[in-house]
Amino acid sequence: MAEEGTGLEESGWATHAREFIPSTHRGLSMLRLYLPFRDPTLDDGNNIVRWSRYVSVEDHSASLDWFEATAGIAEELPSVRGLVSCMGVLDEETANALRDAIGAAELQCLRWMGYGEAPHTSSPRRVFGEEYLQARLRREDVKAGRTIPEFAWDAERRLAWGGRLYPDSLIVAAEQPVFRQLINDPRLDTVSVRAERDDLPPSAGD
Predict the structure, then answer these.
(1) Over the stretch 178-188, which tens digit does the pLDDT of each residue have?
(2) Number of domains composing the chain
């Protein structure tokens, strides 16, 4: 049964990329935004490692799985197995790029109740078997060091995103100007989603 008002399912296990986007926004162009990993051997501030350092994300479908993508290089570059998923915590460049995309829009978001920063201002809403709390999301709420909400959308049906718990990537749906802005942003690793084909694999942070 879909969560009232979003079209996101209350229970089950989502796989198709489009299932992570509220039904109101599924007609928009979609992309997958790969959140970077962290290298624990490097100092904070210099430890951000993007997928594209090891994998040409544009040469793969949006269903790319991190572990499968790096299996062939792990023997030659064992350090790839020491990287740590960001688990949804934003780095500075990704946060800045998302704030630019949000602009003046105000979004609604769902934050998993297990996060300490989740707002306790509303009744829980169930999505894919987990409980989330809904809150408003402004561009200044998206900042480095904070966990990005798993789901967000605007009332104007111009921008939305969704992901798994502790996400290593997000499915983003956006109107064309914002879609092009994100897909061409050199601060981000992105690839276009074919909604009828592409899946979102389990997060490396799970």
Answers:
(1) 999 999 999 99
(2) 1
